[in-house]
Amino acid sequence: MNAARIAYRPVGMVLGAAGGMLAGALFKRVWKAVGNADDAPNATDRDRGWTEVLVAATLQGAIFAAVKAAVDRGGATAVHRLTGSWPD
């Protein structure tokens, strides 16, 4: 195991938690702007239609995936700068 991978593990864990919180907050703001309600629907919400539930889930997944990719890439880049090796 290389030094970059070892250095990235704790960084990745912290960034992952922070990224999850950021993605959740970002999704809430986006949903307030595009949704018909303040809160996004749950899949089992009886008062919400299929379209609204599926759009919310798709949007949430896209935001979480984009934030995760950005955070992972930023963390890997930072570790590369510090160690000179890319964390595989």
From TrEMBL:
Transmembrane segments: 6-27
Pfam families membership: DUF4235
Keyword Transmembrane helix: yes
Keywords, comma-separated and alphabetical: Membrane, Transmembrane, Transmembrane helix
Protein name as catalogued: DUF4235 domain-containing protein
Species name: Streptomyces hazeniae
